[in-house]
Amino acid sequence: MSEYEDRARAVLSACEASGIMLATAESCTGGMIAAALTDIAGSSSVVDRGFVTYSNEAKMEMLGVSSETLAAHGAVSQETALEMASGALARSRAGVAVAVTGIAGPDGGSAEKPVGLVWFGLVLKGRAPLAQSHVFAGRDRAGVRAATVEAALDMVLSALKDG
Q: What is the pLDDT of residues 68-79, one digit of tens each?
């Protein structure tokens, strides 16, 4: 099993207890969140689908992220993360969707958006959308991606417990 097994099991249990399915919209993690969940037998009762939208074109085509949002704020932004999560929810049977978009490195960072910056978006039906960012500084690419998976699973779990 994966290094995220305990968190993933908790998310699956919380979704099952809430009677909702989950969708993911992933950029910098390339499907790692969905993989952590689907590594667990029986996850098909809760996981509806995962969108891997690495390019801006994929974000627009698969999730409905607007070109205006991408032009104004960039792929790594609160606005894009929220549009990704909303798009995943709208294009699935899920009741909760989590999205991640970030700069895993080692290149691609800037003063405003350093390597390790990840924006998270979460939409739970019937609730206001949530967004948060983390800067996973001092980590290599694998470390940023692993920390992103953990934080995304924690964000879903927290939202479901609060709901």
A: 999 999 999 999
| 127 contact partners, CB below 8 Å, separation of at least 6 | 159, 163
Tell me, what's the pLDDT at 3?
83
Q: Are 39 and 5 in contact (CB under 8 A)?
A: yes
- DSSP 8-state secondary structure symbol assigned to residue 42: T
Class of 5-162 in CATH: alpha beta
Q: Distances from the Cα of 86 to the Cαs of 39, 92, 100, 141, in angstroms?
A: 25, 10, 12, 27
pTM: 0.96
Distance, in Å, from the CA atom of 61 to the CA atom of 81, rounded to the nearest integer, reads: 15
pLDDT for residue 163: 60
